[in-house]
Amino acid sequence: MAINFAQAFSQLIALFKQPPYPVTHRPYPKLRHFILDVMAEGRRKNTINLLFEADLAKIRTHLEKHNTQQGMRISMTTYIAKTLACAINEDKSIQAYRHGKSRLVIFDEVDLAIMVEREVDGHTMPITQLIRNANQKSIDVIAQEIHVAKTAPVGETGPMTALEKLFFSLPTWLRKLVWIEIRRNPHSFKQVAGTVGITSMGMNATGPAVIIPITPMTLTLSIGASYSKVVLDDGVAVERDFIQMNLGADHDIIDGAPLMRFADRFKQKLQDGSVL
Q1: Which domains does the chain have, with CATH numbers?
Q2: What integer pLDDT is reported at residue 253 of this predicted model?
Q3: Predicted TM-score (pTM) of this structure
Q4: Does the pLDDT at position 96 exceed 90?
């Protein structure tokens, strides 16, 4: 079959022309370089994931009692964050970081890096709020800091300071040089990114759903959606509400069995309300 080279060439040229259908063009937000950097660092990790669920009935009972007595509303995210910090406080090796090839750094402070969805320069995106030393702070203080992260002007006293906005406006090659230095020193990483990550984006969904994020942290908790299902309680079928969660862990540091034991202890703390 003869090939019409002129026709083939014209079709090839048409691929690079303006499409005949309407489209909208907008600048790529420079602050999304934060997400690109986090994913690039996260792909360097050998991450394992543990999906599990917790019964919401007791959790809601504890929260309602606390909120009534204290006159201050504690959100589900705040409660889970404080419980996670307390569970880590009992075994801080779960948030260890490698320093070189032959040493681990285990921090006493649990610095939670909580992802908060905000509008920045006209774009909605997740940014990080660090809750320093969360294992030693009361749940009310943590609740106030999360409230500030959600409401304070971005680039001032709240999340994403002016310096951070400037950094994520830099060229990729320059940011990579900075990340190499941060990656090499766990103390620098702690100052910049905290020690443990938390994302609750899955709570915006309905039905069973949880996000498995790409993360540069040794340990990251992803809070999923709540949903109802029928379970057996003393042989009787009852409907219960559950919340799905995922623990992502750096397998270079944490093995499966310790992660399972930690998840079990964390879930027990969630349901006994001891952090309140």
Answers
A1: 38-272 (3.30.559.10)
A2: 95
A3: 0.85
A4: yes
